[in-house]
Amino acid sequence: MKRASVRIALSASVALLAIGGAATYSAVTADGADRSVETDIWADGLPAEPGDDPAGDLDRGRTDTPLRKMLLPVPEGHRLGPEAVPLDGNDGELDARGTVRLMKQQQQGLTGAERRQFETVVDRIGLQGMVWRTYVHEEVGDHVAEVQIARLKSGKNARDLYALQTGVLRMAKLDRGPRVEGHKNVSCFKDAPSGPGTDRDLVVFACLAYRADAVVSVEVTGSKDLYPSVVSEFVKKQLDHIASPGEYV
Fold first, then answer.
1. CA–CA separation, 218 vs 189, rounded Å?
2. Where in the sequence is the signal peptide annotated (predicted)?
3. Each residue of 158-202: pLDDT tens digit?
4. Which of 49, 125, 149, 220 has its CA 20 to 30 A from that of 97?
5. What is the reported pLDDT for 6?
6. Comparing C-alpha atoms, which of 31, 5, 27, 9 is closest to residue 18?
7. Dihedral angle at the C-alpha atoms of 50, 132, 65, 70, nearest 10 degrees?
């Protein structure tokens, strides 16, 4: 069993759903007052056991399902990164049922009415499954990226979830991150990690995007000298790969 803490300050009057990194969870009071929420997220045994991968090159990531194929293969100069929290492993997948279950676990701190509203959002957003992969730069070991891709029932559902995610981060008043060349439906934000034991010399970039029926979350953590251009180039590679995956070689 693994644990992560996420702290987001926001103001609104409904429970909103977001996936990935700093956008994992947000809750708000019924009276609309600002508050900071530190959420303990627990996940235990949700991912199913993976099958054999016909691609064979597991060092670049699994490709044994259509959704996994959307993930960027591990680029040159990188390797698979640390275990994703609260997920299991560094290269995994959840089906629709597991994805909904994971989202519904992220409701600590809500009142009964807020929890029911939150679960209604989760049920109606049309989650069909999600995949994730982490990457670490071989030469700059503190540069770690995590990509999550959620597939939804329709393009409208994907747009709605993207709007919820980016709305949460804008309300949290995070700094704007870099632009991603060649892609319109993407927003990036910059923040410093928080919580007990956090390394204050690190910086976090969170980029959210949608394409067709998929919502993409990319979080890159590194030292404070991590160039925004490095982040935008990584995000561009991931979005380009979804647009034109080509052959996995």
1. 10
2. 1-27
3. 998 888 888 878 887 889 999 999 999 999 999 876 656 566 678
4. 220
5. 28
6. 27
7. -160
Residue 158 in contact with residue 149, Cβ under 8 Å? no
How far apart, in whole angstroms, are the C-alpha atoms of residue 245 and residue 1?
A: 34
- Run of H or E residues at 17: strand 16-17
pLDDT band at residue 148 using 50, 70 and 90 as cut-offs: very high
Query: Domain extents for the chain?
Result: 1-22+62-243
Element (H, E) at 83: none
Mutual angle of helices 96-104 and 112-124, in 10-degree steps: 160
Q: Bigger pLDDT: 133 or 48?
A: 133
> Measuring CA to CA, how many Å separate 136 from each of 64, 81, 141, 184?
22, 5, 6, 26
* 3-state SS assignment for residue 106: coil
The more confidently predicted of residues 1 and 17 is 17
* Dihedral angle sign, alpha carbons of residues 135, 186, 13, 160: negative
Q: Write down the CATH number for the domain with range 1-22+62-243.
A: 3.40.1000
Considering Cα of 28, then 31, then 32, then 34, what sign does the dihedral take? negative
The residue type found at 102 is L
Mean pLDDT over each residue of the chain, to the nearest integer: 75
State the Cα–Cα distance between residues 57 and 54, nearest whole angstrom. Answer: 9
